[in-house]
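Recall that a protein's primary structure is simply its ordered list of amino acids. Everything else, from secondary elements to tertiary packing, is in principle encoded there. The following example makes that idea concrete.
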Amino acid sequence: MTRGGTAFGKPAQPEPPGLADRLKALRHKPKTLAALALVAVLGALAWATREPETWITVNPTEMRIAVGASQQLSVALTYKPRFRFRGSARSIAGTVQLISFPSAVDVAPTTMATSGSAPEATLKVTGLREGQEELILAASNTPTDQRSWQTTSVRVVVTR
């Protein structure tokens, strides 16, 4: 067994380079620097898109109808899988409900279950009397889970 250390005439171990020294050394290694930058950008993108999202898509978002006239309102529950962008979102099956009680318009049906083959609900909005209403819609793909419900609103103006 040999004895070591500075007390026995051996040189001391050099201290490992610090972060500043390592960053200075990267200036002379452009490929490594580019790879680290790419990893940082990909990590930021993964962090930004890490969670799945569900939201309600309504068309049209504002309606203007006359008393006695009807218009179709299209409602869909949209889902974006994790680590994807909003452009890859698709409509999914779920339950759509009208949770407001408008007096100037009639909405039929007030509750509708959509399927995978027809994920879009079509509601018929009829003007009853002159005025302005806000229709509040809720949708969920798992109606028994209270946290899964999403809401949105549609402004309806009924004119004479």
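The CA atoms of residues 76 and 120 lie 5 Å apart. Residues 53-159 form a domain with the Immunoglobulin-like fold (CATH 2.60.40.10).
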